Amino acid sequence: MSTALDRFLTPLLGAADGAHAVAVAAVRGEECAVLCRGPAEPGTRFEVGSLTKTFTALLLAELVARGEVHYADPVDRYLPSAVPGPPITLLHLATHTAGLPRLPPGLIGREARAAWFSNPYAAFTSADLLAALPRTRLHHRPGTRVRYSNYGVGLLGHTLARAAGGDYAELLTERVLAPLGLTDTDCDPYRPQALGHWHGRPRPPWLIPGLPAAGALRSSARDLLRFLLALLAPDRADLTGLPPSLRAALADVQRPRLALPRTGNRVCLVWNLRPRGGRPLLHHSGGTRGFSAFAGFLPGSGCALAALADTAPTPLAPFIQAAYGTLCALDGSAAGHVPGDRGRELPGGGRESRPLPGGPAHVQ
Q: Which ranges carry the Beta-lactamase-related domain (predicted)?
């Protein structure tokens, strides 16, 4: 049965150039809808790339709510080796203010270059990540600039797993995915999923063993809708069975941690926040060598949208831009593009380095 949401979502199904399978999901008030095109269903799993980072942020907030870690904890408290220089905290990693490069040293070796158009991260392991720490040079003092880093959020996930005495993927499932009922979502590249494409050519499943917290998740439109519904209203009646720590974390990830100069934009825990009609709009995008993904929500209006496509982002990211504009349209505000957020966070994209006036005092 057609819904009022369909007229907003239907154009988005055709916005991903070269895509075979597309799935979009949205909520506006009490109305929800999931639309699919091609060989996709509401439960079809897509690689979500850097949307993984938003789940890693939720895991961090959940451990903080339990008192197992604290935002101000230095990373080297939990690791056998450290990055030379001033201490890097968990909050620095979750706000891209650690000063770390976009990728860890040693990742772009001969094997990564040979697999650049398929699986550049596949040969980089957790052991390689630990070996990279003492070889890392910071681009700036922690807490003074925003510099997008896959390395940083990958390191955050590794640190949280060490702090809790487990594996990142297992810990995320136990603390976040299973309590939220996200049965289609995990880091397993061998469960059935859509076939990704890059310039029309099929791509193998994305492998990122050393930095899973930065981009290893697969998810579906229906799971992402459930995730966004939980973020919109952590106190909803059907979420009463959630652990108090996860309910608190759902709210805490949305709290602005720092302000970007001259823009009015904020950075939360991983999520980007832009004022939209006097209310916050939170969003993030993701991409792998075969997939594009977007998720965003407006807590003040009860609107949220997730969009998935089985094709890699192109430089102008029309699918990501269209998804952002559709979310704005759901809220009734003027649609706009997403400056600095092209859906290319993996493997080499991201935002430029931006100074923070006053430095560390702006990281809360």
A: 16-314
- The residue extents of the domains of the chain are 6-362
| Distance, first Cα to last Cα, the chain | 47
Q: Name the token pair of 70.
A: 């604290």
List pLDDT tens digits, range 238-285: 667 899 999 999 999 999 999 998 888 999 999 999 998 888 999 999
Binning the chain into helix, strand and coil, the percentages to the nearest 5 are 35, 15, 50
Phi, psi of 276 (to 5 degrees): -140, 105
- For residues 33 and 25, is the Cβ–Cβ distance under 8 A? yes
Model confidence pLDDT, tens digit, residues 287-346: 999 999 999 999 989 999 999 999 999 888 999 999 999 999 998 854 455 544 433 344
Cβ-proximal residues to 33 (8 Å cutoff; 6+ apart), any chain: 3, 5, 6, 9, 25, 26, 27
The reported pLDDT for the residue numbered 315 is: 85
Q: How confident is the model at residue 361 (pLDDT cuts 50, 70, 90)?
A: very low
User: Which string of DSSP letters, residue by residue, matches 128-148?
Assistant: HHHHHGGG---SS-TTSEE--
Of 206, 48, 194, 51, nearest in space to 124 by CA: 206
Q: Is the peptide bond prior to 234 cis by the omega test (within 30 degrees of 0)?
A: no
Burial of 237 (0-12, 13-18, 19+ CB in 10 A): exposed
Domain boundaries 6-362, CATH class: alpha beta
- Residue 161: closest CA among 199, 204, 129: 129
Global pTM value: 0.93
- Do the Cβ atoms of 52 and 286 come closer than 8 Å? yes
Of the candidates 270, 146, 272, 268, the one whose C-alpha atom is nearest the C-alpha of residue 217 is: 270
- Annotate 251-275 with three-state secondary structure: HHCCCCCEECCCCCCEECCCCEEEE
Q: How many CB atoms lie within 10 A of CB 2?
A: 8
Q: How many residues make up the chain in this entry?
A: 364
